[in-house]
């Protein structure tokens, strides 16, 4: 439904920090399903951990937040600008159920829990092979840059 070029036209993130490769499904005002492929060439694997690479949990949270941001932007019919962006304002009830390894395909589903003015709340779940690997409630807020 959305390729990398379309994602980059909405989000301000770029490699190596962009954590969403494509969007499979999106229903504005409701939910989004996105994908992040985990390559064995990721730079963080040099130190996390040598000989036993594990995709960092903080980057799973970031992938969930970027996915949620795409949903919010599409729902509002807008995108990040040079002067404004949505940033993570809170992460609640984060749970990590299993490790994510090179070769895995992370599927991220974010659902809108609510929003008020410029603050959005989402429930996000990350899965590998249809098995939940992480979940969190994510709050994003508009920020002047």
Structure description:
There is one protein chain. The protein has 145 residues and is an alpha+beta fold. It has a single domain, classed as Hotdog Thioesterase (Thiol Ester Dehydrase, Chain A), CATH 3.10.129. It is built from two helices and six strands; from the N terminus they run H-E-E-H-E-E-E-E. It has helices at 4-8, 57-76; strands at 22-27, 31-37, 84-96, 105-116, 119-128, 131-144. A six-stranded antiparallel beta sheet has the order 1-2-4-5-6-3, with helices on one face. The radius of gyration is 15 Å and the shape is globular. The termini are far apart. The mean pLDDT is 95.
Short structural summary:
The protein has 145 residues and is α+β, with helices and mostly antiparallel strands.
Question: What is the topology?
Answer:
Elements: H1 4-8, E1 22-27, E2 31-37, H2 57-76, E3 84-96, E4 105-116, E5 119-128, E6 131-144
Antiparallel strand pairs: 1-2, 2-4, 3-6, 4-5, 5-6
């Amino acid at each position: 439904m959305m390729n990398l070029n379309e994602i980059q036209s909405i989000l301000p993130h770029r490699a190596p920090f962009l954590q969403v490769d494509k969007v499979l499904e999106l229903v504005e005002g409701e939910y989004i399903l996105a994908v992040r492929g985990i390559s064995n060439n990721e730079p963080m694997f040099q130190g996390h951990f040598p000989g036993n690479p594990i995709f960092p949990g903080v980057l799973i949270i970031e992938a969930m937040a970027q996915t949620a941001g795409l949903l919010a932007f599409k729902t509002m019919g807008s995108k990040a600008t040079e002067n404004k962006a949505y940033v993570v304002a809170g992460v609640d009830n984060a749970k990590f159920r299993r490790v994510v390894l090179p070769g895995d395909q992370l599927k991220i589903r974010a659902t809108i829990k609510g929003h008020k003015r410029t603050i959005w709340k989402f429930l996000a779940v990350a899965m590998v092979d249809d098995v939940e690997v992480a979940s969190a409630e994510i709050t994003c807020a508009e920020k002047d840059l």
